[in-house]
Design brief:
This protein is mostly helical. The protein contains 13 helices and 3 strands; from the N terminus they run H-H-H-H-H-H-H-E-E-E-H-H-H-H-H-H. The chain is elongated and about 65 Å long.
């Protein structure tokens, strides 16, 4: 079997067995396609460690980021380990493959005052009763109030909401289900949207959908639409280019920790498989604490 055909089978394995997200599968498949181009006509069993090292070296020469190199090395290690298990190759050439350590980039985070001003302004706009304005206000409140991923928000159905308890059941990465809490402002905004806006949007659809958040034509709202909303709303506050919905998730996590929340509780709310992923927000909080100290203390 050549590398491309094996990579296709590996992608199916990632989707059907390991149940990785579509974006992760696409990224791994693209990495292996790039490896196939670099390997040329070599058969799968003829790819050795030197070929893999040369592949990563070429990516370095192209100026690929360290995070990209780390992901490519991870894709190769996972692929060749699977290929050996499937007896497609005799030896795993990626066992000793090492990529540069990933640099840790602190996420963009909005200030608490900035978030309060943004959401208060959106509430004022929504008060006029425009269905899209009501929906957008509810989306921003939910993303910030719950810390859920944008894909989780777009996949939420009406039956997943418990407005009495202010919780939502979401399906996260790896099809892992969890329940996330949200606060009173999000509950009120969602309640206003469900009562005054969603029926208007739903009436525009040709077929009914159980989705909580609907587009202007009445279908389930897509991730890109939410990305555009957040970028337009949050960009001026953070002052960063290409700000997306994850910035609200970052902000929610950081503000939870700033307020004294337990790290493991934040891990559960965010749905992180590893506590190490959540710990990046402790670095954000400590950096902000240091910055405040340097500005305020006379002997800083």
């Amino acid at each position: 079997m050549d590398l491309d055909r094996a990579a296709d089978a590996f992608a199916r394995h990632l989707t059907q067995v390991r149940r990785l997200s579509p974006s992760t599968v696409r990224a791994y498949r693209a990495d292996l396609r790039d490896l196939a181009d670099a390997a040329g006509d070599r058969a799968l069993g003829d790819i050795d460690l030197e070929v893999l090292r040369d592949w990563l070296w070429r990516a370095t020469q192209r100026g690929d980021a360290r995070s990209t190199l780390a992901r490519r090395a991870a894709a190769a290690r996972s692929f060749f380990s699977w290929a050996k298990d499937e007896e497609l190759i005799g030896l795993d050439p990626a066992l000793r493959l090492v990529a540069p350590k990933r640099g840790r980039t602190l996420p963009a985070v909005a200030s608490k005052d900035g978030m309060r001003d943004l959401l208060d302004e959106r509430a004022r706009i929504a008060a006029d009763g425009d269905p899209v304005a009501l929906r957008d206000h509810a989306i921003l409140e939910m993303l910030y109030g719950s810390g859920m991923r944008v894909s989780e928000l777009c996949g939420t159905d009406l039956d997943d909401l418990d407005q009495d308890r202010s919780t939502a059941r979401v399906l996260g990465k790896g099809s892992k289900e969890r329940v996330v809490p949200y606060g009173r402002p999000a509950r009120d905004a969602v309640g206003a949207y469900l009562t005054r806006a969603r029926p208007v949007l739903a009436a525009r659809a040709t077929t009914a959908t159980p989705a909580v958040f609907l587009g202007v034509r009445g279908g389930r709202l897509g991730v890109r639409a939410v990305y555009s909303l957040v970028a337009e709303a949050l960009g001026p506050i953070i002052g960063a280019d290409a700000v997306g919905p994850h910035a609200l998730r970052h902000s929610a996590a950081t503000h939870l920790l700033d307020g004294g929340a337990d790290l493991r509780a934040v891990q559960e709310i965010l749905g992180h498989a590893s506590l190490g992923t959540t710990q990046i927000y402790t670095h954000v909080s400590s950096e902000r604490l240091t910055a405040t100290y340097r500005l305020a203390h006379p002997r800083a």
